[in-house]
Design goal:
heterodimer, A: 456 residues, FAD/NAD(P)-binding domain, 3 domains, 5-stranded parallel beta sheet, 23 strands, 37% helix, B: 381 residues, D-Amino Acid Oxidase, Chain A, domain 2, 2 domains, 8-stranded mixed beta sheet, 6-stranded mixed beta sheet, 27% helix, FAD/NAD(P)-binding oxidoreductase (chain A), oxidoreductase activity (chain A), oxidoreductase (chain A), BFD-like_2Fe2S-bd_dom_sf (chain A), FAD/NAD-binding_dom (chain A)
């Protein structure tokens, strides 16, 4: 009998560990990744001709990054690795890929989606100006190209990545204007019992804050962003915000990095027709899965931050666990004791993730209060006011309906960046719980696809 | 009054697409009370997911009077609806390829006959064609240009008609799935899945791919097949392509079309249609159909190969074997009317269908030729 064909999408922490488990079981998986090199976002590898040391690139996570990269390098002869390849659709047991204009349809017996995450963004007036980046984007600039997004960079939003990227900028010698956290400091104290599930990670977080303090960077908690200031010609020139005590202040800068923790990249699970459920803790719709990563569709497995944001360490464990589950389902023998132990690890990471969600809450009220003249959907240039007018005129209260009438979420990102905030705005405007607003239906292609695809 | 009595009106319309919504609006114009029942949301399937061609060119000659009636409504849609459905009279061009020179003769013949029905077409070939439309590829031989056709936004059209009807007093119930319809005495009793009932002496079925479920209840099954359009859209680029463009060819796979909206996105459609699933209210774009569409688009307009598509979509359309809709009165039941099964080409004529059905119901007659659409053509001998 031919060996089963396993396809892993994503070569970050979960994809790498999944591939490792498949190879150990004697299977040569196909590993498809959009990136030019493995490592994913968090352990993104620098271009070949760059030689910065691991400690400089990954700080406290240098050891993990190195171990993961070495594992992947060691697997290269034993896997069918396809970098710079986009999976643009899934249908009838086949993945449809594009690499440049080369198109391929690849059948699979098991599909492991290790698709990772992007920033969760909360629109603010002026976030469409040149010089406004996501935290992830600002980190990519630094990690991949060793450049800063500006001369004087302000970090705004919430979540662990806010402190991590700000301190990475400080250590790289950049001028950090301030770190503005929308979460009140008290939230962090309330979250401590859950955060203690992973004391070493908690300690790393404390160390980041110390780095910022030592560098003399202003860190403010409980702020409310008002506006990213500047103009279309010259881009960002400052940030206006309200302090925790309600005073309005302005800080000059020429670039802003913003983000509110992360959101999973679930479009492929959607195209694979997996069932989704609303997760009240994160206020996001997530693909359903069992404790080992099995999706509602037979043969599809979900792991890492692409399924739910539990962090890079959890991604390594859940990637391996999902691969073991796939191997079991394909009739291969695996170590059941290891699976039980991995389940325990993931449960502990989940507790820590709950703590993070409490410590750095998603400021939903900002979406509700977004001023009418602020851009909500950057791809299509739709303002909050445009959406409110459409809702009043058409009675649309559901995400896809509001999209059809207003174009919010209809552009090239398909709502990946504005969809969560738009749902909160719709919920507030309609006076319904956000889960009633529903979720945007994903459509192929997952990312823009060239019309020249398949050209000879 | 009990809940079973709250649905009494002069006319019940089952199916809230463009046909049902526009019929509701025009029936109000005749002073009849209307209840419009939609199983999901207004205009979500065929009416909302089609290409958006407001095209008379290429229709059968018997359909041109209806199409002419419709174009008059599209032209005044902004005033009529109090909403912008992005109707643009920017022209439509149908082209043929060098390997089928015989189609030039067919285009000329069509133009001669269409002129008699009030549709003026201009035939262009060679340099004249490429001077005017430089985006065409070298395979394109000739084209037939209709300056008075154009396009509109399907996502906006049917809901705008339904809202206009509502403003004039029509009652619209969305999320109302009809599971039974029968005539008791003088009235039709229409029952929803949740038990609500609606009553009226006249019933108009505009239920698209679902129409057969109701016509069968009255002894008039039709061989309708659900399919889904194959649609894509590019990222926005500067507005440069004014007419909607389509290919004249006997092969379905080669039949592609595109139009650019004023915002800049180019909507691509055609090549092989996909399956659709009326019971699930979903239609999926098959990846191989996307690829076939893009291949034929590159042949038609090679420069488009430099762009990306950002989204694909489909919807549920009902196709009849002769590609003509079922439209007009029932052959078995008085007071029962149909307008469904538009076979992938109902968008342009939609408002004309609504106005004509309202006229037939309110006045008992119309000048529009209706014989080709008679449901009796499917009656088993």
């Amino acid at each position: 009998m031919a060996k089963p064909r396993i396809i892993i999408v994503g070569a970050g922490p979960s994809g790498t560990r999944a591939a490792e488990a498949c190879v150990a079981a004697g299977i040569r998986p196909i590993v498809i990744d959009e990136g030019r090199r493995d490592g994913g976002q968090i352990y993104r590898r620098q271009p070949d001709n760059f030689t910065r040391p691991y400690e400089k690139l990954y700080g406290t996570e240098a050891g993990r990054a190195k171990a993961l990269h070495e594992t992947f390098d060691g697997l290269k002869g034993a896997i069918d690795y396809r970098p710079e390849t986009l999976v643009w659709n899934i249908a009838a047991g086949q993945l449809w890929t594009a690499s440049g204009t080369v198109q391929e349809a690849i059948p699979f017996d098991a599909l492991l989606l290790c698709t990772g995450a992007t920033d969760r963004l909360m629109p603010v007036k002026g976030w469409n100006l040149a010089g406004a980046y996501s935290l992830g984007g600002s980190q990519v600039a630094l990690k991949s190209q060793a450049v800063s997004i500006g001369h004087k960079v302000l970090f705004m939003g919430s979540g662990p990545l806010l402190y991590l990227v700000a301190s990475q900028y400080v250590e790289a010698g950049a001028d950090v204007a301030a770190v503005l956290d929308t979460s009140p400091f008290s939230a962090r104290l309330k979250a401590l019992p859950d955060l203690l599930a992973m004391p070493s990670v908690l300690w790393n977080g404390v160390a980041l804050t110390r780095t910022l303090k030592r560098a003399g960077v202003t860190v403010q908690h409980g702020v409310t962003p008002v506006e990213i200031m500047g103009d279309v010609e010259s881009g960002v020139d400052g940030v206006r915000f309200r302090t925790a005590s309600g005073r309005e202040e302005t800080i000059a800068c020429d670039a802003v990095a913003m983000g509110y923790h992360l959101r999973p990249e679930t479009q492929l699970a959607d195209l694979a027709r997996c069932a989704f459920a609303f997760d009240p803790g994160t206020r996001q719709w997530l693909p359903e899965r069992d404790g080992d990563g099995r999706a509602s569709v037979a043969g599809v497995y979900l792991a890492g931050d692409g399924a739910k944001i539990l962090g890079a360490r959890s991604a390594e464990a859940s990637g391996r666990l999902a691969a073991l589950a796939a191997l079991v389902d394909l009739g291969l023998s695996v170590d059941k004791g290891e699976m039980a132990s991995l389940r325990g690890d993931v449960a502990n990471y989940a507790k820590f993730a709950r703590g993070l969600a409490k410590a750095f809450p998603w400021p939903v009220e900002q979406a509700a209060k977004l001023p009418d003249d602020a851009i909500l959907c950057r791809c299509e240039g739709v303002t909050a006011g445009d959406l409110r007018v459409v809702m009043r005129e058409t009675g649309a209260k559901e995400a896809n309906r509001a999209k059809a009438f207003s174009r919010v979420g209809m552009g090239r990102c398909q709502g990946r960046y504005c969809g969560l905030a738009a749902a909160e705005l719709i919920a507030a405007e309609a006076g319904v719980p956000v889960e009633q607003v529903g979720r945007l239906r994903g459509q192929a292609p997952v990312k823009p696809l060239t019309i020249a695809i398949g050209e000879e | 009054m009990g809940p079973s009595m709250n649905g009494a009106s002069d006319v019940i319309i089952v199916g809230g697409g463009l046909m049902g919504s526009s019929a509701a609006l025009f029936l109000r114009g005749h002073g009849l009370s209307v209840t419009l029942l939609e199983t999901d949301l207004i205009g979500r399937q065929a009416s909302g997911t089609n290409f958006g061609n407001v095209r008379r060119q290429g229709r059968g000659f018997h359909q041109l009077p209806l199409a002419n009636r419709a174009i008059a409504i599209w032209r005044k849609s902004r005033e009529l609806l109090g909403a912008d459905v992005e109707y643009l009279q920017s022209g439509h061009i149908r082209v043929c390829y060098r390997e089928r020179p015989e189609l030039v003769g067919a285009m000329e013949e069509y133009a001669d006959k269409a002129r008699l029905e009030g549709l003026d077409l201009e035939l262009l070939s060679g340099n004249a064609l490429r001077d005017k439309f430089p985006f065409f590829g070298p395979d394109v031989l000739a084209g037939s240009y209709s300056p008075t056709d154009g396009h509109a936004n399907p996502r906006l059209a049917a809901p705008a008609f339904a809202r206009a009807a509502q403003k004039l007093g029509a009652v619209v119930h969305e999320n109302t799935k009809i599971i039974d319809a029968q005539k008791l005495g003088e009235d039709f009793i229409v029952t929803a899945a949740d038990g609500r009932t609606f009553r009226a002496p006249i019933l108009l079925v505009t239920a698209g791919a679902w129409g057969n479920a109701l016509s069968s209840q009255f002894g008039e099954p039709v061989p309708i097949v659900p399919r889904g359009p194959n649609m894509s859209v590019t990222e926005p680029v500067p507005y440069a392509i004014h007419p909607a463009v389509g290919v004249m060819t006997p092969l379905e796979e080669e039949t592609v079309y595109f139009r650019q909206v004023a915002r800049g996105n180019i909507v691509l459609g055609g090549s092989t249609r996909g399956p659709s699933f009326p019971d699930q209210y979903r239609a999926y774009v098959e990846p191989q159909n996307t690829l076939s569409q893009l291949k034929h688009i590159r042949r038609l307009a090679p420069q488009l190969g430099k762009l990306n598509i950002i989204r694909v979509w489909s919807g549920i359309e009902g196709y009849l074997p002769d590609s003509q809709p079922v439209m007009g009165p029932s052959a078995t039941t008085s007071g029962l009317y149909y307008a469904f099964g538009f076979s992938g080409s109902g968008f342009q004529i939609g408002p004309g269908v609504g106005e004509t059905m309202a006229e037939i119901i309110a006045k008992g007659a119309t000048d529009i030729p209706m014989a080709p659409y008679d449901i009796a053509r499917f009656a088993q001998a």
